[in-house]
Amino acid sequence: MATLRELHDTTRFAIIDTDSHHGNGTRAMFMDDPEVLHVCFCSYDNVTGSGTKVDVDAGFHTTDAAYLEKAEREFISRCRAFSPWMIFHNFGHDTAQGDYGDRGLTRSFFLTLAERVKACAEEACAGRYIVITHGGYRQDLAEYIFPRIVDILSRP
């Protein structure tokens, strides 16, 4: 982000972290930076950093609809108000049914999530949205999800 800040004369970034486990490394890097909104979907609720560091209890044994509702409320609405220059997505698929961070999500959930965050990026930051793959060990799931996410991101 430091290079992007320098090259584009910008400071504000948003990070959505949907890996099953807390993104403590990401949080530590940006804890004292009010220009970075970090919303982490993990196992507890907490808001710090003047509201720019948000932990969301995503719940175990949740549903696609319940998780998406939390993503809309806790990230997308905050992101629109925050007006970042770019959105980074720490995109874990370990939350899928049968993976090591299983929260009960189906494989189609991940495509819907990517579509929703992309739509937010188009509205909030001229479509600047980068997906960074994170947790998940199920190769079959990764082979299903990520080519389709590339397709979603490539659509005008």
Topology:
Layout: H1 2-8, E1 13-17, H2 24-30, E2 36-42, E3 46-48, E4 53-57, H3 64-82, E5 86-91, H4 107-124, E6 129-133, H5 139-154
Parallel strand pairs: 1-2, 1-5, 2-4, 5-6
Antiparallel strand pairs: 3-4
Helix pairs in contact: 3-4, 4-5
Written description of the protein model:
The protein is of the alpha/beta class. The chain has one domain: Histone deacetylase domain (Arginase, Chain A, 3-Layer(aba) Sandwich). The chain has helices at residues 2-8, 24-30, 64-82, 107-124, 139-154; strands spanning 13-17, 36-42, 46-48, 53-57, 86-91, 129-133. Strands 3-4-2-1-5-6 form a six-stranded mixed sheet, sandwiched between helices. Helix 3 (64-82) runs parallel beside helix 4. It is globular and about 40 Å long.
CATH topology type: Arginase, Chain A
Strand content: 15-25%
Order of helices and strands: HEHEEEHEHEH
Count of helical segments? 5
Q: Judging by the overall fold, what is the CATH architecture?
A: 3-Layer(aba) Sandwich
Fourth-tier CATH superfamily name: Histone deacetylase domain
Round the Cα radius of gyration to an integer and report it: 15 Å
The end-to-end span amounts to 25 Å
Number of domains: 1
Total number of β-strand segments? 6
Could you tell me the mean pLDDT?
96
Q: Report on the biggest sheet.
A: 6 strands, mixed
Low-pLDDT segments: none
CATH class equals Alpha Beta
Structural shape: globular
Q: Which structural class do you get from the secondary structure elements?
A: alpha/beta
Specify the helix fraction band.
40-55%
